[in-house]
Target: Phosphoribosylamine--glycine ligase
Amino acid sequence: MKALVIGSGAREHALVRGLLADPEVASVDAAPGNPGIAAIAPVHPLPGLSDGPAIAALAAEIGADLVVIGPEAPLVAGVADTLRDAGFAVFGPSGAAAALEGSKAFAKEVMAAADVPTARCYVCTSGDEARAAMEATGAPYVVKDDGLAAGKGVVVTDSLEAGLAHAQACFDAGGRVVIEEFLEGPEVSVFCITDGETVMPLEPAQDFKRLGDNDEGPNTGGMGAYSPLTWIPDDLVDDVMTRIAQPTVDEMRRRGTPFVGVLYVGLALTAAGPRVIEFNARFGDPETQVVLARLRTPLGRLLTAAADGSLDEQPPLVWRDDSAVTVVVASAGYPAAPRTGDPITGLSEESAEAYVLHAGTALNADGELVSAGGRVLSVVGLGDSVDEARKAAYERVAQVKLTGSQHRSDIAAAVAPAASAAD
Model:
């Protein structure tokens, strides 16, 4: 099998690694990729991530048997439709199905139809509506941009004025906002692979959205993650399948827009049980880095089964017993104004216990590796326990040299006994 992975982040680097580890996958190409991916697989330039005809032409040129679309923007733009119309097997939902991520208001509509537990919400198009909705929900106020916002379109605040300001910025940009009641409880991510009928959950992970330690600072695309989650209820995944993932997939099929790919279920574990915070239509970053690090089942076979509708014929997934922790190394100024062009060194020593996935990196005119985005690297550590995985990840982070870089020092610390004792 030949696979083509679309995207350029650490998530796509993890997908390429996972596919290459599958003995049934003969080769993996990526577009546009990044320098880290280029070290292990051929990469190809693209006019744009949402240029469906260009991606289809590339898939034909390399003879791809499976195209895996990583980011949300091309999915919402309908790139999967263009590829399927051209005869390719695609892992990723159609444009209509990807609206589960492309519009939070649409996702809430689907959840209501499928009787999926989630927060009470209001869809607003004006400042007056937003104020009334916020007064109805009370603080903390949760104000969400209805459309795609690269993981940074949500404001959670105790300040009515700050919430209204975010809402107004969305209105000024021509969008809507979804204002909902705050869900109290730890957050968990569950990826569900589906072919539009059968749903197969991956092991849960937890990510860390805030920039700084102790969940301080602004929201980001994600500063780290870990898996497995030994503290969650034993029946959580079964509950998510029964009450959330399967009903949602069934509802999408009933509407004539079957969802094929990965349904990312973002949960809050409230006192009343799990509630959906959001759906995404693709693998999450940085959770993918730890979930795929632990997956033993061949990835190519799994994604192909989803793409061709044979997921019900697949055996149960097999997982490593190890723990995995990923720590994001971000550039100076992230997330507000990331600085780029700074040299990156200290990446040469790889091991089975710790490795580096590239995200915002590039080669400059002299061929030097430099920063090229906000989240620059994901450092993955593996170990027999969360303690060991954290140790491996942070020892590897310490070797990375990037002027002005920033990272959290507390990823998974709350569940790591040694880290807690050190604190």
